[in-house]
Specification:
single chain; flat; two-stranded antiparallel ribbon; mainly beta
């Protein structure tokens, strides 16, 4: 993605049984998404 590209809608498992969606953050000035490999894996 290029800077300024709108991220697609998605939902992820949050803490416990709560899901977190990108829409939960709509209206906030900035949202930073960081993706990383699973813990304890090479890479």
């Amino acid at each position: 993605m290029e800077i300024g590209t709108v991220a697609p809608a998605f939902a992820l498992q949050g803490t416990g049984e709560d899901a977190v969606t990108l829409a939960d953050f709509r209206g906030r000035k900035n949202v930073v998404l960081v993706f990383y490999p699973m813990d304890s894996t090479p890479g």
